[in-house]
Amino acid sequence: MEKNEPQLHPRDELSVLSEAELEKLGLRNRAPSPSICTRIQKKRCSGSAAKSLLFQLLPILAWLPRYPVKEWLLKDIISGFSVGIMHLPQGLAYALLAGLPPVTGLYSSFYPVLLYFFFGTSRHISVGPFAVISVMIGSVTDSLEPSSKYLEMTNGTNKTINYVLRDAARVELVAALTFLVGIFQVALGLLQFGFVAIYLSEPLVRGYTTAASVQVLISQLKYIVGFELEEYSGPLSMIYTFLEICKRLPETNIGTLVTSLIAFICIILVKMLNDRFAKKLPLPIPVELLTIIISTAISYGAKLNTNFGVSVVGDIPSGMRPPEIPNPNYFGKVVGNSFAIAMVGYVICISLGKIFALKHGYTVDSNQELIALGLSNFVGAFFQCFSISCSMSRSLVQESTGGHSQMAGLVSCLIILATILKIGELFYELPKAILAVIILANLKGMFKQFKDIPALWRSNFVDLLIWLVTFVATIVLNLDMGLGVAVIFSLLTVVFRTQMAQYSILGEVSKTGIYKDVAEYDKAEKIPGVTIFRSSATVYFANAELYAGALRRKCGVDVDNLIKRKKKALKKAEKKAKKEAKNNKKVVSEAINGCDSGNNNLGFVDIDMEVKSQETNDCKGGNRVSEHNGSVKDLEPQINIQPQPCYKPTLESLGLEKPPLHSLILDFTPVNFVDTVCIKTLKNIFRDFREIEVDVYLVGCHASIITQLERGSFFSETITKHHLFASVHDAVTYATKKQGGNLPQIATAMLNTQM
Question: Which of 41, 183, 189, 700 shows its CA 20 to 30 Å from the CA of 330?
Fold first, then answer.
C-alpha cells in the first residue's frame, strides 16, 4: 500500500448504530423548510427571469434562430405537404363525426395548428382534428342540440330537419365547449398541473380510445347504409343506435352502400401498399385525398345525389370567417364535458409526444404542452373551430417522411389555407359516405388495441381489469360518464393493492446478511428469538388495521390472549397480596403486643407507625419490628411476606410462559409515508409487545419517514430512536447481542463460473 493512499477503517461487524447514534455521528441537519415569503423573494423580477419566462412560453424563440435550414427545410416541406393532404380529408370527415358542417374541420386544421407552431414543444406530433375527440364532441351536440329539435312541417304533413338552424346552433355550442377546453388546459398549464396526466394510465387510455373507436364505427354506419337515424344520448345510447340500424337494414340505400364498399376496399389496399413499400416510396400515396377527388368527380358526373339518393356534403363556404365571441349561455351545460375533453386530448398528445421525443433525443415540457393545446383551443373557439388533439396517423406520416420540426406543421397550414380560400367549394358533390369510409379506415390502428386483452391477461390482471372496466363503462355509459367511472376505478385499484399487500416473515439467506421471505426461499432461515416482519405496501389509514392483524397472525404469538392472561394473573396476585398484607399486619400486631407485655412500663408504641415502618422495610428486603429498647429486630422468615412488590412482575413470576421470541423487527423499507393512523398503530404494537416482554425495532426508515414520526409525536421515553436501525441486519445483530445469543455471521460466497 502506498503511503499517500488513504486507509479505510471499516466499522466493526459487531458494532451497530441506532438512528439516535447515526444522527449524532452524521450530524443530521434539521433545516426548516423555507417560508412562503422566502420563496416569493427568490422569485424577484429581473431581466434574465423575464427572458427565461418568455422563452419558456414561446419555445419558437429558442429553436427557430438555431434552425438548420440546409439540413431540415426540404424534409420539413415534404413532410408538411404529406400531412397537409391528409389534413384535408380528415378535417372534413372528423367535422362530420362531431356533427358539424365540414368547413369547421378545415378551420380546425388551420388555426390550432398555426398556434401550436409558436407554442408547442414537440417536433413531430401533428395536432388538429382527432377521431376520439370528435366523437366526444358529437355526443355533446347530439344530446344538447339534437336534430329532432329542428323538425319543421312541410306540405302540412311531412317533417324535415332545418339543417341551417341546427348547424348554426351546433357551431355555437361547440365554440363554447372549445373555449372552456382551452381555459381548462391553459389554467392547468400555468398552475404546473401537467402531472395530472399520470392519473390516466396507459391501460385506461387504450381501453377508452378503443371504446371510442367502437362508438365512431357505430355512429358512421348510418352514412354507410344511407338512411337517417334517431339521435340518442345518455347511457346505452350506442346500444340503442346499433339496434335501430339492425332493424332498419332493409331500408339500406344500395347506391350509398356500393360507393362505401368500393372506396373502403381501395383505401385499405393502398394503405397496405404504403406499409409494405414504406422504405421504397419517397412519399406515401395520398389515397384519402385521391379518393375524395375521384369520388367527387364521379358523384358530379353521375349525379349520385339526384339519381341514387346518395347524400353529399353540400355547400362549403369559401374564405375566412371573422372572429365571434362564444355564447356564454352554453358554459354551464358543457363544463363537465369540457374538462373530460381537455384531459383526454392532453393525455393523447403528451403520450405520443414523449414517444417521439424519446426516439429522437429531445424533451417535451408537459406544462407547456398544456398551454400550447389550451391556446390552440382557446383562440380557435373564436373562429368556429372544435377541440383538437393530435392524430397518430398524421404524426407517424410527419415523422416517417423526414419531418424534423413544427415547420412541417406550418407548411400543412398553408395547404389548408389554400383549400379554405379557393378549393373547398369544389367538394360540394362529395358523398358523405366517402368521409365516413375515411374515418373507418383510420380506425384500424385503434382496433388493434383489442390485442391488449390477451397481453394484459398474461402480464398484469389489475391492468386488464382497468382496460375492461374502462371499455365497458364507455360503451354502456357514453364517453363522458365512462371516463369518470374509469378514472375512479383506476384510483380505487391503487387502494385495493395496498389493502391486498403481501405480508411476510423474513429469514437470513445462508448467512449472507440478506433477508428474504422464508416462504419463498428455502435457504432463508429464521433467526432464533427474532421475528422480522415486512409489508409490501405503505402503511396508512386504509390498511393500518390489516397490517396489525397480519403481524399478530404471523408473529407466532397470540398477543391478545397472552396480555389477557397476564392481566388476570396480575389481578389474582393483587388479591393475594392484599390478603397477605392483612395477615401480615395481624402478625406484626401480635408480635408487638407480645413485646409490650414483657415490660408494661415502656412507652406506648403506635401500631400504625409500626405497620408503616414494616411496609417501608418490606421494600428493602425484610420485615422489621422495633424492640422495646429502641433496636430493630427482624421478624422470622415465615412472616416475611411482602404485601405489594415494588419490582415489575414478569411473565415467569406470574406463572406464565414467555413467548418464543424476544425481539420483533418491523421492516419499513417499502414504506414511503406514514400518517396519524399508522403512527397510532405503531404505538399500539410497541405497547402490546412490550407487555409480553418483546422488544420492537423499526428498520429501513427513510429520512422523510423519521421526520413524519417526529411530527406525529411517535417518540417518547419508552420509544426512542434507539429502536430505529438502518438495516435489518443491524437490528438483528443488536437484538441478538442484547439477549446474549450467538451473533449472526456473514459468510463470503465464492462463485466459480465453469466454462
Answer: 189
Place of cell 438555431: 66
Q: What are phi and psi of 114, to 5 degrees?
A: -65, -40
For 708, which DSSP code?
Answer: H
Is the backbone of residue 288 left (phi > 0), alpha (psi -120 to 50) or beta?
alpha
Dist CA 616 CA 612 (whole Å): 6
Residues 200, 382 contacting (CB under 8 angstroms): no
DSSP state of 431: B
Cα 90 to the chain's mean position, in Å? Answer: 33
Q: How far is CA 561 from CA 90, 435, 549, 553, 659, in A?
A: 73, 75, 14, 12, 12
C-alpha cell belonging to residue 662: 424476544
- In one-letter notation, the amino acid at residue 328 is P
Q: Which residues partner with 159 through β-bridges?
A: 153
Are 166 and 100 contacting, i.e. CB atoms less than 8 angstroms apart?
no
Q: Are 175 and 424 in contact (CB under 8 A)?
A: no
Model-level pTM greater than 0.70?
yes
- The pLDDT tens digits for 707-736 are 999 999 999 999 999 999 999 999 999 998
Whether the Cβ atoms of residue 628 and residue 591 lie closer than 8 Å to each other: no
Quickly tell me which residue has 404524426 as its cell: 395
Q: Which of 393, 413, 384, 444 is CA-nearest to residue 137?
A: 384
Q: Which of 532, 499, 556, 528 is nearest to 744 (CA)?
A: 528
- As a whole number of angstroms, the distance between CA 59 and CA 498 comes to 42
Instruction: Return d(Cα 453, Cα 466) in angstroms, integer.
Output: 11
Q: Say whether 626 sits in a helix, a strand or coil.
A: strand
Based on the number of CB atoms within 10 Å of its own CB, is 714 exposed (0-12), middle (13-18) or buried (19 or more)? Answer: buried
**Rounded to whole angstroms, how far apart are CA atoms 456 and 446?**
16
Residue 335 pLDDT exceeds 90: yes
Contact criterion met (CB below 8 Å) for 741 and 735: no
pLDDT tens digits for 406-464? 899 999 999 999 988 888 788 888 898 998 898 888 888 888 889 999 999 999 999 99
Give CA–CA dist 325/739, Å, rounded: 80
Residue 67 in 3-state DSSP?
Answer: coil
Place of cell 389477557: 564
3-state secondary structure of 34: coil
Burial 290-319 (b: 16+ CB within 10 A, else e): ebbbebbeebeeeebbeebebbbbeebeee
Angle between helices 47-57 and 366-380 (to 10 degrees): 70
Start-end of H helices in 148-236: 163-190, 202-225
Give the cell for residue 428. Answer: 360540394
Which grid coordinates are listed for 665?
A: 423487527
Q: What is the 3-state secondary structure (H, E, C) of 307-363?
A: HHCCCECCCCCCCCCCCCCCCHHHHHHHHHHHHHHHHHHHHHHHHHHHHHHHHHCCC
Cα–Cα distance, 312 to 256 (Å, whole number): 10
Q: Are 548 and 679 in contact (CB under 8 A)?
A: no
The three three-digit cell numbers of residue 249, written as one number:
337494414
Q: Which residue in the block uniquely carries the three cell numbers 381489469?
A: 465
Phi, psi for residue 158 in degrees, rounded to 5: -80, 145
Burial classification of residue 749, based on how many CB atoms lie within 10 Å of its CB (0-12 exposed, 13-18 middle, 19 or more buried): exposed
